[in-house]
TrEMBL record:
The keyword Repeat does not apply. Belongs to the binding-protein-dependent transport system permease family. It comes from the Bacteria. Pfam families: BPD_transp_1 (PF00528). CDD domains: TM_PBP2. This is Carbohydrate ABC transporter permease. It is found in: Cell membrane. It is a multi-pass membrane protein. Residues 73-264 form the ABC transmembrane type-1 domain.
Length: 279
């Protein structure tokens, strides 16, 4: 039988876990408290501010000329909601085809799809830019949104593995009842792949929300900037940087993805835990 820990053993175990938890959360705590500090106060070793500067948040929100952070939040939401919807919709449809349909060279094309995951983004950057420039898409959101309609190899693989764990007998029963392949996809597979779809949604939204390189390459106008580019505007090499305001705005910038993760945490964990388990 498994030996039960004594109260002293439990006390030591909890103390160690709490100590490691504090070590892990310390950078976040420093970030939170630093957002209330002055620039001079940031050089002090103390975690808590010497003087609490609550004005960092309203001043940071309105720090940039002409545009407030509300504008950049809306830009980021527009781009990421559209991109996330396209990512998940396209990936689920393609994944259903690879997991359930039979067509020539299916395994070959699936292998090619997986190989694209290993392809560095820098390799395709110049050809993509030249292509989007020829389309007249530079300084628009199209280069950031339209590629999501391809589904993304990682999301397709994630959903394929989940669909393969669903018994094929459900498909056969639906076909006997006269259901088409699209009907099977929409009425049978999609409701059962909800955890995988939620996982793909969270990944897509977070990766898109924190994307700095894409908007930097394709967007030229400040009125189209997303939050990562807006945060970059705080750092002026010609003058002093208001670090307190920058930290305050960067802290607010993570609120949407953190909320999405915690609201969908149950389905996210289920999707990750069951992906790849074939029943």
């Amino acid at each position: 039988m498994k030996k039960q820990l004594t109260w002293k053993g439990k006390l030591v175990t909890h103390a160690i876990l709490i100590a490691f938890s504090l070590m892990m959360i310390y950078p976040v705590l420093w970030w939170v408290f630093a957002s209330f500090k002055t620039t001079e106060d940031l050089t002090r070793a103390s975690l808590l501010p010497a003087v609490w500067v609550w004005e960092n948040y309203p001043n940071g929100w309105n720090a940039l000329p002409t545009y407030t952070f509300t504008y950049f939040y809306l830009n980021s939401l527009k781009v990421n909601i559209a991109g996330t919807v396209l990512h998940v919709a396209a990936a689920s449809l393609v994944a259903f085809g690879f997991a359930r349909l039979t067509f020539p060279l299916k395994n070959f094309w699936f292998s090619i799809l997986l190989l694209t995951i290993m392809l560095p983004h820098q390799v395709t950057l110049i050809p993509q830019y030249a292509m989007f420039h020829s389309f007249g898409w530079i300084n628009t959101y199209l280069p950031l949104v339209v590629p999501a309609a391809m589904g993304g190899a990682f999301f397709i693989f994630l959903i394929v593995q989940f669909i393969r764990s669903i018994p094929k007998e459900l498909d056969e029963s639906a076909k006997i009842d006269g259901c088409s392949w699209f009907g099977i996809y929409w009425r049978i597979i999609m409701p059962l792949t909800k955890p995988a779809l939620v996982s793909a949604t969270i990944f897509s939204f977070i990766w898109g929300w924190e994307d700095y390189f894409g908007p930097l390459i394709y967007l030229n106008s400040v009125d189209k900037y997303t939050i990562p580019l807006a945060l970059r505007m705080f750092i002026d090499t010609q003058s002093a940087v208001a670090w307190g305001q920058l930290l305050a705005m960067s802290l607010l910038s993570i609120v949407p993805p953190v909320l999405i993760f915690f609201l969908a945490q149950k389905h996210f964990v289920e999707g990750i835990a069951t992906t790849g388990l074939k029943g």
